[in-house]
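This part of the workshop introduces the protein records we will be handling. Backbone structure tokens are a discrete shorthand for how the chain folds in space. Once this layout is familiar, the rest of the handout is easier to follow. The record below serves as our worked example for the rest of this section.
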Amino acid sequence: MTENILAIDQGTTNTKALLVSPQGTIVGRGSVPTGVRYPRPGWVEQDPREIWRCTCKAIAICLTGVEDPRLAAIGIANQRETALVWERASGEPVGPAVVWQCRRTAEFCQKLKAQGHEALVQARTGLQVDPMFSGTKIRWLLNAIPDGPQRAANGELCAGNVDAWLLWRLTGGSAAAGAVHATDTTNASRTQLMALETLAWDPEILEIFGLSAAILPTIQPSAGCFGHTATLDLGAGCVLPAGIPIASMIGDSHASLYGLGGFRSGSVKATYGTGTSLMTPSPDPVCSTRGLSTTIAWSAETTVYALEGNIYTTGGAVQWLGNLLSLDDPGPEIEALARTVPDAGGVTFVPALVGLGAPHWRADVQGLLTGLTLGVGAGHLARATLDAIAYQVRDVFDVMQQESGAALQTLLADGGASRNDLLMQLQADILGCSVERSRSTEVSPLGAAFLAGQAVGLWADESEIASLIPPRDRFEPQVDEPAREAAYARWRAAIDRTLYRR
């Protein structure tokens, strides 16, 4: 009987589960929306228990939709930098899941910079000091509970990103049940606590952040056995049996690069979600001097590094405008509005709604709309929002082109906002290069499935995986260079106004 791979994709606003066959086809799926809370301006959090409940429900929907869903292994892709702390004995969370978008640790980050730590932190971890990354969030969570730092040092608490939380629950949920506390190199590389050179928690960085290594998970390669499932009642009459290997864990952006087949230097992808991540692989770490991050792309028998640029708000800007205009379904409705006008009518929107990420890294700035007149309507605002996504991607793409040393000639695209045909055409026009969009809306979980399948011998290597990659739609630039550069110059002027408020 055929055994399949169960892939979990725990995202910021949605949790998915896919059943992937040995032919690389999706034979079952489940999807459950996941709530997000905004308790204060700039704060973003989730309920760890809800994350787990949504995961169980998505798996149950996926498995009950298939007659005989035998499993060879489980792979996990997850929202990165979202940090949690829970009790080792009970498995109960001791605070919220602080989401990657959250800015609550901005003051501590400024303190680290003022103390002169940023150069060392970036050299060791590849990341700029910024509230997005997990390390400062873990510190905040510990300080928010009674005797948190001491309990952490005593080994009473566990911390990690969402991957570590799901692994803990899948493998029993408590220390007495033998639950596994581990993470992979991609997720560890987003904590700002792991040294890229050693692939281990860095003692000096931990001391700077005021954290104990006792609270952190064991770091393993992205593909390999992390542990085995306990018997789990998922609800709806679905039981996940014991003994299934969890054979891959990988951050969702890294999983997208893998699922798109971006295995070699010169490949570059953009995942269009709430924010957007651009990533290009490299055999060795590349130290960015212009606002990109050095990270781990994935690891198995070898470690593949990557340059990455994280944009805070892209699809999130579409959602924001949709809410402002009281639209029922912002994605397609914003695209329809944008198609009612030939251009943005002189409007430029800089969606710095939670600050600006790469390559600027300014958590303190706010959004900006310029060029408003009495003739501006909803269509112009919609078009300006799509323009802003494409311009932000170019900001990162241009820097990545220079620092990677590789010719980046085609952008691979995936993610929810990539379903917008107008956006993809605008992206090709603004970059001046081809954009290839995956026809699959589930590239991240496919990447996790491919890694898990290799780990258990379902697929031999990346050349075999390449034959399973879903087909793509291609968008070619239709704007000449003078028009493209004139439009981009207006965007750059708006960025300057945002950064310097003049």
About this structure: DSSP finds 16 helices and 25 strands in the chain. The first helix runs from residue 48 to 64. The mean pLDDT is 93.
